[in-house]
UniProtKB/TrEMBL annotation:
Keywords carried by this UniProt record: Repeat, RNA-binding
Name of the protein described by the UniProt record: ARM repeat-containing protein
InterPro entries the record matches: ARM-like (IPR011989), ARM-type_fold (IPR016024), Nucleotide-bd_a/b_plait_sf (IPR012677), PUM-HD (IPR033133), Pumilio_domain_protein (IPR052645), Pumilio_RNA-bd_rpt (IPR001313), RBD_domain_sf (IPR035979), RRM_dom (IPR000504)
Oxidoreductase is among the record's keywords: no
Chain ranges of the RRM domain: 5-77, 91-163
Positions annotated as Pumilio repeat: 294-329, 330-366
CDD domains per the UniProt record, alphabetical: RRM_SF
Recorded GO MF terms: RNA binding
Domain PUM-HD: 231-579
Length: 579
């Protein structure tokens, strides 16, 4: 097989994420792109240099990754040239290696937080897309933040592109014309619903054809004015991301654990003696103080030691406030890196649990805050962060700030999503903090809905948060992407949750009109036998929909099935019988 800079990795563990594969294969050299295909149990890794790909294949072939022995071969060489990566900044971005399932509107939604967007389009046959910003600086910021990040399951690569003329258009199916503002696209998409949606208003009384700006304002209005059972409902204010929190310079990775001190005075046998003495019921405060002075100089090393970490824990449990403060201040500069070590994490968690004064708590917060996102993503680090919840709302606020600022980055991780959920459900979490995270969840709803980890957080928002306005907030985010969401395994479940409720019927009605009264959407959903048809069946059987509406929707489905000519297809038989 001829070597290329593209590797095919087969028989991969289904639990692995794009981030996991990136961490495994990036040590061999810079990676241009990575794409994971979990349904086919394989992935593709494109290196920048062919020699890095060769070395990675030689070393990883037949190796164990997760619970599986992987196979590694060379893939088809990517003919993508580096022009987009090397040209001078422009306000147009080229996005490569995009998911086949993403739509122009979804691509627009992903990049909208970085600034005003003029247009977007997708070239499905080339697996790439283009986004035109109105300002060069917004495009540069988007490229810096999103390059090599995962979007709809694919790690994209981003470069600058030539800015097209204002009047240029494209005839590609499913593409948004260049030069056409996104708000106009929204209006056009909703025009086909006009005969049926005159009574269906989005938040604040605006019609479905509201511009993006109007939708933002109406979302804010709904969250402020929605009736609810909580007295703290007024905390559900405007759905605006906090630019100051987003701008905080969080670390993208964790520093290595400090190198062990080769001249350490304490050996393992001595550590066992000290631990035995501290465990004894007859040990006194003098014994604790003696052990503290003997171990203090080596306390950083001992935190990650198999026996040493247990001794440090004993000192934190039994030491006085001054001793605890000295240990915390000594370890604080290395707290993040030690916190992800299999031994060190227990020492760090004990320090946080035993911190009882403001002087002891503040160094912990200061040391962990810059590393909060990568800690949340780590199997041990996320528990270190969760230990900080008990420090109280003033000191644990850094956790929610980090989740708000890096929501998608953290939520797509297996440990990250579950850590976020644990924080949201904690007894120490305030309604204001839940609201701060909920704003980020709504802004990232399209990405979260199609991610196996991120979807857990939308489930929390809908089922557990009890935040008034949550359905009304999500509905406008979904309304222009129904063809994709209703045919996606996970997103269709979230969509059905929003339909199967009576808490906010206007949000439910908006989505029902969007699904059943737009010909193209209904055709797309009914054309999907795997998830789309099943979703339609569940909706028509729901007790939350009026009988009159069911009759109207059923007629629409019958007409569309006749157009599709699928009456003899096995996958549609049950639906036809129910109709």
């Amino acid at each position: 097989m001829t070597p290329t800079r593209s590797l095919w990795i087969g028989n991969i563990d289904s639990s692995l994420t794009t981030a996991d594969l990136m961490s495994i294969f990036s040590p061999y050299g810079p990676i241009e792109s990575l794409r994971l295909l979990p349904e086919k149990e394989c992935a593709f890794v494109n290196y920048v240099k062919i020699e890095d790909a060769i070395r990675a294949r030689e070393e990883m072939q037949g190796g164990r990754v997760g619970n599986c022995i992987i196979r590694v071969g060379y893939g088809k060489a990517d003919i993508y040239t580096s022009d987009a990566q090397t040209m001078q900044p422009t306000r147009a971005l080229w996005i490569g290696n995009i998911s086949a399932s993403i739509t122009p509107a979804a691509l627009q939604a992903v990049f909208a937080p970085f600034g005003a967007i003029e247009s977007a389009r997708i070239l499905t046959h080339k697996n790439c897309g283009f986004v035109n910003f109105e300002k060069v600086e917004d495009a540069a910021k988007a490229r810096k933040e999103m390059n090599n990040k995962e979007i709809y399951g694919s790690a994209v690569r981003i470069g600058y592109a030539k800015v097209p003329p204002k009047d240029s258009t494209t005839s590609k199916i499913g593409a948004t014309p260049f030069g056409l503002p996104f708000s106009s696209t929204l209006s056009q998409a909703s025009t086909s619903m006009a005969p049926w949606s005159s009574s269906v208003t989005s938040l604040g009384g605006n019609s479905v054809s509201s511009s993006a700006g109007e939708q933002e304002s109406s979302l804010s209005s709904a969250l402020n004015n929605s009736p609810g059972t909580y007295e703290t409902v007024d905390l559900l204010g405007p759905l605006v991301m906090d630019d100051k929190l987003i701008a905080f310079p969080y670390a993208s990775s964790l520093p290595p654990i400090p190198e062990p001190n080769l001249n350490r005075k304490i050996d393992q046998s001595r550590l066992r003696e000290i631990r035995k003495r501290l465990d004894s019921h007859t040990s006194s405060a003098k014994d604790v103080e003696s052990a503290f002075h003997e171990l203090y100089d080596d306390s950083v090393d001992l935190c990650s030691d198999y026996i040493g970490n247990t001794v440090i824990q004993k000192l934190m449990e039994r030491g006085g406030d001054s001793h605890k403060l000295m240990l915390i201040e000594r370890v604080a500069p290395h707290m993040a890196s030690i916190g992800i070590h299999k031994n060190g994490t227990w020492a760090i968690q004990k320090m946080i649990d035993c911190a009882s004064t403001p002087a002891q708590m503040q160094p912990i917060v200061n040391s962990l805050k810059p590393f909060a996102p990568p800690l949340l993503l780590d199997q041990f680090g996320n528990y270190v962060i969760q230990c900080c919840l008990r420090l109280g709302p003033q000191r644990n606020q850094f956790i929610y700030d980090a989740i708000h600022a890096r929501c998608w980055e953290v939520a797509q991780g297996r440990f990250g999503a579950r850590a976020i959920r644990a924080c949201l459900e904690s007894q120490y979490t305030t309604k204001r903090q839940q609201r701060l995270v909920s704003v980020a969840l709504v802004h990232n709803a399209l990405l979260l809905a199609t991610n196996p980890n991120g979807s857990l957080l939308l489930t929390w928002l809908l089922d557990s948060s009890n935040l008034a306005g949550r359905y009304r907030a999500l509905a406008p985010q979904f309304i222009n992407h129904l063809s994709h969401l209703c045919t996606h395994k996970l997103a269709s479940l979230t969509f059905f949750k929003m339909i199967n409720q009576k808490v906010e019927p206007d949000a439910r009605d908006l989505l029902l009109q969007g699904l059943f009264m737009q010909d193209q959407v209904l055709e797309d959903v009914l054309s999907d036998q795997v998830h789309g048809v099943g979703l339609i069946q569940k909706i028509l059987a729901s007790n939350y929909i009026e009988e009159a509406d069911k009759g109207k929707f059923s007629e629409r489905v019958k007409l569309m099935l006749g157009k599709l000519q699928v009456h003899q297809v096995q996958g549609y038989r049950r639906l036809m019988e129910e109709l």
